[in-house]
């Protein structure tokens, strides 16, 4: 772990619900999360686990039927002029403050499908320039010059010509580069990438991830990835947060989550991750389905799907247990209680993870060195 890490986001006990015709959906249940300057965290979990809702709350972008019932999302920064440390709770800001202070300017988001974030009727140039003119009151000339710079940064050649193009004239990979350029146009400190490569083919996916990593290094950005894809996580993340039914059930460094996972849900996710040696037919799927969050969850929400569930799981929600000898690894499972029976991860997964370790995966910095070295 790096010394003198500078915390930029601190989420504590965040609870979010949505009013629906089927009742109140408790989508995010007591989430704690930290993000430090220049670092990358990933939030992983099955569909509906609350990944997007959590990060949308960070942007102050919850749907109209949603509300933050309790908790805080502190954003920390140093004042541009005085250098003084400042803190704001994003949950307490008005829409106007969110628009002028946070969204785009301090925290920007890249969504899965570039076509949904680009305006099909507006040229690329205009779409990159507008936020700068709005947020920073840049003149047209300044915004134009910066837009060219940004297009270069995201690896788009012939930038002047591209500025005049409309989104449909570009390939999927190029469009995602444009979306990244727009996200970076107001020099945010945090970039949230929601499944940024899912809609792209595999070779383009790798290029976009590399691009985000390059830019991150150049600009000391902090990045949050939301993804189903543990392969993406392995390539990019420093820290991983595993989410299930609105809760973070395991958190740790990438090595801890990939080589020493403790939560049976994390075991399931890792077992169901495709790799080059696995025939798709052999892939494991976690049995059952996540709970309906419109109903109150009693005990551990994962218990009905957990072959290792204990009696207490049916009655009480487990707290976060610290894994001994680690400052970063925590697990919400009663199996971590000192009096719990000792349960090891499934043998097939152990073998799989050992094989990955031998191969030097996860290879999140793009190098060929083994982790932990
Ligand atoms: N506007 C809404 N109204 C009602 N329920 C909602 C709304 N938005 C999200 N939810 C519910 O909140 C829960 C968490 O959704 P969320 O989109 O955060 O999941 P996710 O982990 O990001 O899934 P995915 O990977 O599919 O995007 C789900 O049960 C979802 O149905």
CATH superfamily assignment? P-loop containing nucleotide triphosphate hydrolases
Count the DSSP helices. Answer: 12
**Biggest sheet: strands side by side, in what order?**
6-7-8-3-9-10-12-11
Which CATH architecture is right? Answer: 3-Layer(aba) Sandwich
CATH topology: Rossmann fold
Low-confidence stretches at least 5 residues in length (pLDDT < 50)?
366-373
How many domains make up the coordinates? 1
Distinct small molecules: adenosine-5'-triphosphate
Q: What percentage of amino acids are in beta strands?
A: 15-25%
Please report the distance between the alpha carbons of the first and last residues: 13 Å
Q: Major sheet, described briefly? A: 8 strands, mixed
Q: Tally of extended strands?
A: 12
Radius of gyration equals 21 Å
The CATH class is Alpha Beta
The coarse overall form would be globular
Write down the overall mean pLDDT: 89
What is the helix/strand order? EEEHEEHEHHHHHEHEHEEHHEEH
**Can you give the helix content as a percent range?**
25-40%
Structural class: alpha/beta
Protein name: Peptide/nickel transport system ATP-binding protein
Domain ABC transporter: 11-270
Biased composition (Basic and acidic residues): 346-364
GO molecular function: ATP binding; ATP hydrolysis activity
